[in-house]
Amino acid sequence: MKALELLKEKFPEAILGEESSAGQVSVYVKRERLLPVMRFLHAELQFDHLADLCGVDYLGWKGKNKKAERFEVVYNLYSIPQRAFLRVKVSVPEEDPWVPSVTSIWEVANWFEREVYDMLGVRFEGHPDLRRLLMPEDWEGHPLRKDYPLEIEEEWPAYQDLKQKACELSRFEWGERRLRGE
Fold first, then answer.
1. In terms of CB atoms within 10 Å, which end of the chain has fewer, N or C?
2. 182 CB-contact burial (10 Å; exposed 0-12 / middle 13-18 / buried 19+)
């Protein structure tokens, strides 16, 4: 892939490795060099679409390739003019789980980064509004971490309030916007 060769030429110190699986090219990038690499991909190589951004927890990973760190953030990029995909992967240590935010390059990263933060606890340095997206603000823990408890240890403190509010709102008919029993 031409983009990969240009990346290795321009950022030899930032590229940690590459792989190809099912026709999809992936490149591993140092997290400290992620922003310049992503800016180059966007501005110079026309990877203008961030199709997806997700996080992976490799706790207990038994695959053939040993992972250096517990977490990984994966960016799926697409170049509309070139009709080409590129996957960028960044290893993230458990002790210091952060990567730079790419919201300054692709605005859609805002939601993707918030989801990864919410579900896995990976922080995105420089994000304009890093807060929970799916879970309530007072939720403790990150549900997609492999060591997150499957059984409820204690009830979420705001659960009773939420149930009461749901009962209050259940009297509304949303289809025709009228009160039940009228």
1. C
2. exposed
As a whole number of angstroms, the distance between CA 17 and CA 128 comes to: 30
First-to-last C-alpha distance (Å) of the chain:
66
Superfamily of 2-142 according to CATH: NADH:ubiquinone oxidoreductase Nqo5 subunit (3.30.460.80)
Order of strands, edge to edge, in the sheet holding 24-29? 15-21, 24-29, 84-92, 71-79, 49-57
Cα 35 to chain centroid, rounded: 15
The per-residue pLDDT for range 58-92, each reduced to its tens digit, is 999 988 888 989 999 999 999 999 999 999 999 99
With vertex at residue 123, the alpha carbon angle to CA 118 and CA 149, rounded to the nearest 5 degrees, is 45
pTM score, two decimals? 0.85
Q: How far apart are CA 17 and CA 6, in angstroms?
A: 14
Side chain identity at 45, as an amino acid letter? L
How many other CB atoms are there within 10 angstroms of residue 143's CB atom?
13
